[in-house]
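Table S2 (continued). Query chain:
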Amino acid sequence: MSEWRECKLKDICVKITDGSHNSPPTTIHGYPMASVKDMEYNRINLDTCRKISEDDYIELVKNDCKPILNDVLIAKDGSYLKHVFDVTKEENVVLLSSIAIIRPDILQILPKYLKYIFLNPSFRDTVEANYVTGAVIPRIVLKDFKEIDILLPPLPEQRAIASVLSSLDDKIDLLHRQNKTLEAMAETLFRQWFVEEADEGWEIKKLSELVVFEKGKKPYETFEIEDDGLVPQILIESFDSGKYMFSRPEETVIAGEKDILVVMDGASSGRVEIGYHGIIGSTIGLFRPTSIFPFPLFLYSFLKLNEKYIRENTTGSAIPHADKALILDLEVQYSRRERVKQFEAFAQDLFKKKKSNREQIRTLEKLRDTLLPKLMSGEVRVIV
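Corresponding output:
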């Protein structure tokens, strides 16, 4: 490893900054402005971004708040480093300050290699111990962060290491995209059958009449390794990465795969998921279908269709909170039960495939996360 060298992050980057510290007014139409809540696996979800005017967009582009090709974006505020990805396609989107823009000097370091530096657990531990401030909303302090030490191999070895890890990430990304497609198929059918073909004579119920709500509880202890007597703890990160912690089940709230989960607190407030079994913590709410309307995928699709509305109507300035009363007050409209049962059967096939994809994602991520620290430290070398 004699050819590897130590350097500061600032010495191998041409820019280390974040997005806008001013938030322009929201418009109905316009250009997307992303915050950390709009970050997903390897991309920004442009559909969840709020819109700003063309004039405000142009001004923020001038202020260098627009990511460009080969930038590395990291979640800076809240769940810092939860999302890290390199920009492989430029989009007309500007960023708020909760996302940091790291622009590598590509003559010294490859963008993908820099991404994997940020994803290395030892790097994350160093950041948490030395470069994070804030009790309510933790955030990376960029003026200090740029001083962090980096161990850097020559470009050919960077390329080889990034290639090994990217081959796994590409497969993971493909599975994520497949799941997005499966979700879209279910949403399209739901919208057609129960929105576009809705009739005045259909039955209308408040969601509160069809589900039982329960807020999760923080477990007393958590463990990183699965063991006898422990149950998986569903984290917000579990929805994207398949990563779990483990806890004892006593005095906890345990969700089943047919329970609908909604993130109630934090940057992801309002996010709707289904198909998970395990303990839910205090930031997640459980909506369990009652025996009088046992159609979880129908209700999930209904809430998913209303997800944007729920997220746009969160409360709290520093930490967003999903409004439980607003969610339970939503009106569910449906035709005869036979049509609901038909939808449920169709959706079950889609979500069975989605579950299989999630299990594959988890297996691939375990392999990648085992290899990553060994490759990044030089413990395992790649033949160049």
